[in-house]
What we know:
CATH topology of the largest domain: Rossmann fold
CATH class of the largest domain: Alpha Beta
Number of strands: 18
Number of helices: 12
Low-confidence stretches: none
Mean pLDDT: 92
Strand content: 25-35%
Largest sheet: 6 strands, antiparallel
Number of domains: 3
Radius of gyration: 26 Å
Helix content: 25-40%
Amino acid sequence: MKIFEFEAKNILKKYGISVPKGNIASKLDEVETIATQIGKPIALKSQILVSSRGKAGGIKFVNDARGAKEAASNLFGSTIKGCQVDHLLVEEKLDIAAQLYASVAIDRQARAYIVLASTSGGVDIEEVAKASPEKISRHWVDITAGFSKVDAVGMLGRFSLDKDDAATFADTLGILYRVAIDYDAELVEINPLVKTSSGEFTAVDARIILDDNAVFRHPEFKDRSFLRLDDTPREAEARKQNLAYVDLDGDIGIIGNGAGLVMATIDLVGLFGGRPGNFLDLGGGGQTEITKRGIMLVLTKPETKVVLINILGGITRCDVVAEAIVQALNESSIRKPMAVRLIGTNEERGVQILRQAGINSYHSMEEAIEEVLRLKAG
Length: 378
């Protein structure tokens, strides 16, 4: 889960990292008041959960409070990279002497946190990595040992930093690692970490991405745990309902119990020449209400022409799933052809329930897929 820049900076500030003087605003009068209190040139920063907003016009620099109010009037309500601007971070514009980069991220391939540092901040780190990889220092963290000051100083040794700057930079890297651990973060990034003309190190921009699965440990963000920038409307709704759902670009609705089974079903549908329209994993247990909600959600996708339900009953009872299917069809105003593969615990009873409702069920995946493709063609 991404959090806004101002939220990330509030966290960093709590851990002792300096951030520019400023505050968040949602109205023009608030912008003017904050800018007046700062009394210096201002940076207006749109609070949206996308990268490169500056290049898209989401950041404006002005000289005074009057200019801030005028610029804010154009930003509020505008759309930047598909996101509406409802809040602005009104900050002091700093006099920058140097720009650095610092981050802690998860390296999934290495199954470890990786700490990154560079003296080429202020630009996309991916560009630096491609053009000048020697300008980035990396340290993979042994989670059992942690990330020490010695580790931080060591990884900065390749840069031409004076002793004091290297010490401050190292301290900052250590703090970012603590934030990552404390907040179950997938990414904690400062870009740029600037050295001002007065010699102070300040986080001019910051990003933090939290692990969705750990948001329950951070109640301040719990109410937003179902929000993702790139969710489709159905994915967002599924997240609210605790359904494991992903939209795909096909026209065959796919429902199963277990991620592996659903993925195998998707692969086999593709092998038979079909185009899966979604991934929906009902999970184990086959609870009636969850199954019913999942089926009704898949039915609402306009592009979906037919639905394939593939159930392998272990702890999941086939009769409970069958009852949920019937309930979903009775309660939904949307009707679409459906084929069901049902095998396992209480299979005979489940097949009987479906047959009484006029729904065909099959013992093998292949038979069910052939039927769903026939229904689609017909």
